Amino acid sequence: MRNIFESWKVKFNERGFPHIQQAFVLPPDKMYEMDPFIMLAEDWFKRGTFSDHPHKGFQTVTYVIDGRLEHIDNKGGRGILGPGDVQYMNAGAGARHAEEAVGDDIVHSLQLWLNLPAELKESKPFYQDIYAEDVPVKKIGSAAVRLFSGEGGPMKPLVPFSMVEINLPANETYTHELPNEDTAFLYVLGGQASFGETKVILKQGQAANLTKGTAFRIEALERTRVLLYSGQAHGDPIVAHGPFVMNSREEIRQAFQDYQEGKFGPPAN
């Protein structure tokens, strides 16, 4: 059985306009112990916060909680995501895009960064939009489990991982199965529950990483909504700086040089 290894309360920072509020649900300084996960950021923002910018060497998963998010990339891609929608991006060898609020909307989003193994750092960038209505919901007893990635979910990441959202009524229990050696963490989006055999109680705005094991027990103390992520560690060296995640400082320097020389292509607009 899995248990809570470590938990923490997410610290929210008031940023002002247009980046209203920001938090690191999974702080970047945990990337060395949470392989393949680099960070999970939670943001509330208006248009003008995430205009044209580059990425290289990792994957992102952007989950729209509220508002409308417009995606623009420099390969001609454009689309709008609404509440419950998700976008997967493989930045690979170098992507350049913008993620902007539509009109006067305030977007509330969660963006996960996942490392790529060394042999895929130069892979071809691509995007996948996943709409809420296309995400299967698995009913297991009283639990409703939304399957975004893994376990039959519609996301097609370059490197497989699992992302599920578990909705559980008050006073109900659910046990989620995970690969034994996967790195795993959770974020409580709403409510309050006890987790694992040790029954650690966490509530909205708290996150935790899990011990190894296959089964993870959740008992809702009130109506609860939890995001649970798991993935297999790569074990490669990791160096992150700004929008680039590589295996060495020299590769980071090269990424900045390639971007400055226009090798990522024109601006996204």
From TrEMBL:
Transmembrane segments: none annotated. Its cofactor is Fe cation. Residues 163-265 form the Pirin C-terminal domain. One of its GO terms (molecular function) is metal ion binding. Residues 42-114 form the Pirin N-terminal domain. InterPro entries: Pirin (IPR012093), Pirin_C_dom (IPR008778), Pirin_N_dom (IPR003829), RmlC-like_jellyroll (IPR014710), RmlC_Cupin_sf (IPR011051). Fe cation binds at H53, H55, H97, E99. Coiled coil: none annotated. Keywords: Iron, Metal-binding. It holds the Pfam family Pirin_C. Binds 1 Fe cation per subunit. Belongs to the pirin family. This is Pirin. It comes from Pseudobacillus wudalianchiensis. The lineage of its organism: Bacteria, Bacillati, Bacillota, Bacilli, Bacillales.
